[in-house]
Design goal:
By secondary structure, the protein is mainly β. The protein has a single domain, classed as Ubiquitin-like (UB roll), CATH 3.10.20. It is 15% helix and 40% strand. The protein has a five-stranded mixed β-sheet, covered by helices on one side.
């Protein structure tokens, strides 16, 4: 079963300690497999952003509680070798990913 995930460009890195909101700009909805490796997800996001593959980014997932978006972003560790696909990170159909270009 494919996942539809919305990708947003974030104006800054979100922090949990700050109440200041981060500006979000919708980029594209990606149709991806749940077992997609993070390396491939990174490349798909860079293509959606029309950015070079060598660009440095951070990817965040919008956290949900009981089918309700709570508005908090959690960072996805792209360097992690053990948790290398979306299923481990809890990305679900209809989820949101935020991207910050560094």
């Amino acid at each position: 079963m494919d996942l539809d995930v919305s990708v947003y460009a974030l104006s800054a890195e979100p922090t949990t300690s700050s109440s200041a909101s981060v500006e979000e700009t919708f980029i594209q909805t990606l149709h991806i497999l749940p077992n997609l490796p993070l390396k491939t997800l990174r490349l798909k996001i860079l293509k959606a952003l029309k950015t070079k593959p060598s660009a440095k980014i951070r990817i965040y997932a919008r956290l949900r509680r009981d089918e309700t978006t709570i508005g908090v972003w959690g960072e996805i560790d792209l360097a992690s070798s053990r948790q290398s696909d979306l299923t481990w990170w809890g990305i679900e159909n209809g989820g949101d990913l935020g991207v910050v270009l560094l």
